[in-house]
Automatic annotation (TrEMBL):
<dbReference type="Pfam" id="PF01047">
    <property type="entry name" value="MarR"/>
</dbReference>
<protein>
    <submittedName>
        <fullName>MarR family transcriptional regulator</fullName>
    </submittedName>
</protein>
<dbReference type="InterPro" id="IPR036390">
    <property type="entry name" value="WH_DNA-bd_sf"/>
</dbReference>
<dbReference type="InterPro" id="IPR023187">
    <property type="entry name" value="Tscrpt_reg_MarR-type_CS"/>
</dbReference>
<keyword id="KW-0804">Transcription</keyword>
<dbReference type="GO" id="GO:0003700">
    <property type="term" value="F:DNA-binding transcription factor activity"/>
</dbReference>
<keyword id="KW-0805">Transcription regulation</keyword>
<dbReference type="InterPro" id="IPR036388">
    <property type="entry name" value="WH-like_DNA-bd_sf"/>
</dbReference>
<keyword id="KW-0238">DNA-binding</keyword>
<feature type="domain" description="HTH marR-type">
    <location>
        <begin position="41"/>
        <end position="175"/>
    </location>
</feature>
<dbReference type="GO" id="GO:0003677">
    <property type="term" value="F:DNA binding"/>
</dbReference>
<dbReference type="InterPro" id="IPR000835">
    <property type="entry name" value="HTH_MarR-typ"/>
</dbReference>
Length: 191
């Protein structure tokens, strides 16, 4: 099915007939357009949910191909530290959008697996700094390469016209969601 152009609705767009439309005999056209927009949004939402399941599965497979013990949230932690460098636990928790205690438990597991190391901040003895180990960096790089290859293989099976449309649609979708554009240097959004 070909991709549709993004739909722009604002809070005033109800699909109801206004006086100008009613006077021009367009009542049915406008009412139908309103219901078509709602149906298009539902269809788009369903398609994106299906695609997100595929992308999560590809991500999980790419991580498992490297290390079966790493969860998707743990991998996200590694990716954030890979792109931003060492961080204290409070900053890391904020970047992960989790409670500090959750970040601490995740870091404990990753330290235990040799993917992170923890040290005391020389400027504040009460603060712990966490950073990737060399093995942690290799896991991020290898899993990201696996995921990229899997996504490319799926995309290669699509017709060229659909791929072009998908690039446009996904760029618009990610921009509407506040994600940085392709090529942006902050990699915290990799997962």
């Amino acid at each position: 099915m070909p991709l549709r152009r993004p739909i722009e609705l604002d809070s005033t767009d109800t699909g109801r007939v206004g006086p100008t439309c009613a006077n021009n005999g367009l009542e049915g056209v406008v009412a139908k357009a309103g219901s078509t927009r709602a149906r298009d949004i539902d269809e788009l939402t369903d398609a994106l949910l299906t695609a997100s399941r595929l992308l999560v599965a590809l991500s999980a497979r790419s991580i498992a191909a490297v290390d079966e013990t790493i969860t998707v949230p743990q991998f996200r932690t590694l990716v954030i530290l890979s792109s931003r460098g060492p961080a204290n636990l409070a900053t890391l928790a904020g970047l992960l959008n989790v409670q500090p205690s959750t970040a601490t438990r995740m870091v404990d597991r990753l330290v235990g697996n040799g993917l992170l190391h923890r040290r005391t901040n020389p400027d504040s003895r009460r603060e712990q700094i966490v950073a990737l180990t060399e093995r942690g960096r290799q896991v991020v790089d290898t899993a990201t390469a696996h995921r990229r290859n899997e996504i490319a293989a799926v995309a290669a099976r699509m017709p060229v016209a659909d791929r072009d449309g998908l690039v446009h649609a996904l760029t618009a979708f990610t921009a509407a969601g506040g994600e940085p554009p392709p090529g942006y240097e902050i990699d915290e959004y990799q997962l």
